[in-house]
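Recap slide: Trypsin-like serine protease, sequence and predicted structure.
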Amino acid sequence: MRKTGLSLLLCGMLLTVGWGGNASAFGSVATNGLQLSEGISGKAIKELGVAASVSKLKNLVSSEDLVPQIIEAAAPSVVGIIGKSSGEHSSGPDDRYNLTHGSGIIIKSNGWIITNAHVIKDLQNVVVVTSDAKKYSITESYADEYSDLALIKINAKSLKPAKFASAAVDPLVGEKVIAIGTPISFSLRNSATVGVISGLDRKVDAAYRLIQSDTAINPGNSGGPLLNMKGEVLGINSLKYSAVGVENMGFAIPTETVQYIMNQLFKYGEVKRPSLGMELEESWSAIVGIPTGDPLTVTKVDTASARKSGITEGDVLYSIDGHRVTSLIDINELFKSYVPGATVRLLMQSDGDIIVRKLVLGQGDPLMSVEDSGADGDEQPEE
């Protein structure tokens, strides 16, 4: 049996609840077994009535009360995924305990599940376990490594699909969120943690922008949902920062990107992305995260279409169809609404002249930076 080397730290919190009519040491007023903050005076209570005051308090803590209900409702839509890795980290066929696992989200009642591509990559003898402890094998799978998303299918019926948040409703920084997944050990399936959204539109070692949260995310949570307080999936947990002194910095792929990739995989079995047919380099400011309007520099022209448009190495790109682009992720996000074969207008600078070039988009891999725009020093994203 392999020892984990983990220790458990139990942290206690003393909660004081007043049951009498006197103010506590913290200046609170207790009424009918509920402790009211000092911001609500005794006079206000008399004017509004005890019933109205209690109702307001219930509204203040309603989001807290919803957490167990949300977890109970969402848990049946979350699965655990485990198998034997045949990739570079495999230690040989004889080590039956050297397994890799992650999480997934049921999206259709007939067995379709969305997860991270890195969860199922090089995985053999895969077992999918639902919340009711039933085991299934994968019958179909489609992966897109660039977005780190994959679709898998199991032979099951009457599963409970998760609810996805509308792409039209933007999450807010500070909004409470819940993560459900399979951290560290496969025996810890359907573990839940609570936190808040720490940031949006993060450009961190990914092809598309991510949601940052301080919800505890650990290896094995990959592929599981990040839920809002309506029980809707805001994103799919994908990676985290892991280093000494770094705490609770997890990242999730937003619903809008998930829907885009799912639609492509269901329709084509792959993601048909438009391509500019050139390699681009971000400015120093964009790489380190300083706000900038600096353009992208062409470092290589890869296709005949791009060469035919007159694009050469050393040219700089300011905008595509009037949309300013300063990073490679800007282009990937913009191209969600484009298809291969479309014609775009590029505002560029060539030999000192500002010009507009027309380019027919090809099909190919997305533009991804080789630089890690979010890491510094020894801090590295962990899947």
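Residues 29-60 form one domain.
Residues 1-40, 368-383 have pLDDT under 50 and may be disordered.
(End of recap.)
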